[in-house]
Amino acid sequence: MRDAFVDTLTELAGEDERVCALTGDLGLDLFDAFQLRAPGRFVNVGIAEQTLVGVAAGLALAGKVPFAYSIIPFVTSRPHDQIRVDVAMTGAPVKIVGVGAGYAYGSAGPTHHAIEDLALMRAVPGMTVLTPADPREAAAATRAALATPGPVYLRLGKNGEAAVVPPDVPYEPGVARWISRGGDVTLASIGTALPIAIEAAGQLGERGVRAGVLHFPSLRPFDTLAVLDALAAAPAVVTVEEHNRDGGFGSAVAEAMAESGLPGRLARVGMPDRHCGQVGSREYLMAHVGADAAGVRAAATALLERTRMRRAA
């Protein structure tokens, strides 16, 4: 996803002279082609993420469209005051790009884990939050970020992700898409968690459970109607995200369900409400906290059992 973003940004720089790229001393060789395509429009501010966002805001208010890129905690948490004041309060068209969703940087330890960013960014007034699932969607989301007025947060995985969204499914912020439909339970996933939901649906299918998979390509705008559609398909919903279970995608789905007044039961799968002190690969850490496909399958199975028991009572 990272390479798809940079390649697309380089193309955009050749099409639109307003496009700039900024980074906080991260992945400098990634932007070699960008610098050739757009001389003078790449800025490395050094290890100073507050400055990164502040400079991006200044460029935006001067008529440019800057993409500020870093590892997720360093571009969302560390400069959050600058995001709130310099970007959101002014409506500056800064595109904040975070790489390393969830435990993608698992071997670097909890300082690099991205488990709070969706909660932080969805709470910022006027902030669009884009959550592509694979490289093709990452490229489309980069173009969508440029076309979206005002501030945008683009959440990426790392690199080497497989294509999981069918090629005939368009990327459209605010429009969730069914990857598959099932009448027993809906696995609603966001962004990079989609492969986990697809794998879990396959495991449930082997056990005779019809599980649908509903993919959300953005958190803001949020597709509330898709949640209602999921409830119509199956009154049991399991949310899947590479994020703290509290405050992110699962919370957004819970809010939509509660406000709809429709009957339904919900289970949320994601990171537990604690920092993970383990070090290892993304896959190892997701399994360690129960947020892998097996964890989703177990949550869906337990939710369906509770639903059956309630009906029997």
Quick overview:
It is built from 12 helices and 12 strands. It is of the alpha/beta class and 313 residues long. The protein has a 7-stranded mixed sheet, sandwiched between helices. Strands 7-9-8-11-12 form a 5-stranded mixed sheet, with helices on both faces.
How does the SSE layout of this entry go?
Elements: H1 2-15, E1 19-23, H2 32-37, E2 42-44, H3 49-61, E3 65-71, H4 72-77, H5 80-88, E4 95-99, H6 117-122, E5 128-130, H7 135-147, E6 152-155, E7 177-180, E8 185-190, H8 194-206, E9 211-216, E10 218-220, H9 224-233, E11 236-244, H10 249-260, E12 265-271, H11 282-288, H12 293-312
Parallel strand pairs: 1-2, 1-3, 3-4, 4-6, 5-6, 8-9, 8-11, 11-12
Antiparallel strand pairs: 5-10, 7-9
Helix pairs in contact: 1-7, 3-5, 8-12, 9-10
Describe the protein:
There is one protein chain. The protein is α/β, with parallel strands linked by helices. The chain has 12 helices and 12 strands. The strands form 2 sheets. A 7-stranded mixed β-sheet has the order 2-1-3-4-6-5-10, sandwiched between helices. Strands 7-9-8-11-12 form a 5-stranded mixed β-sheet, sandwiched between helices. The radius of gyration is 19 Å and the shape is elongated. The relative contact order is 0.12.
Q: Quaternary state, please?
A: single chain
What's the main sheet like?
7 strands, mixed
Structural class: alpha/beta
Gyration radius over CA: 19 Å
Question: In order across it, which strands form the biggest sheet?
Answer: 2-1-3-4-6-5-10
The low-pLDDT segments are none
Query: How many runs of DSSP E, i.e. beta strands?
Result: 12
- Write down the overall geometry: elongated
Helix fraction, binned, reads: 40-55%
Strand content: 15-25%
Order of helices and strands: HEHEHEHHEHEHEEEHEEHEHEHH
Distance between the termini: 48 Å
Number of helices: 12
- Overall mean confidence score, pLDDT: 96
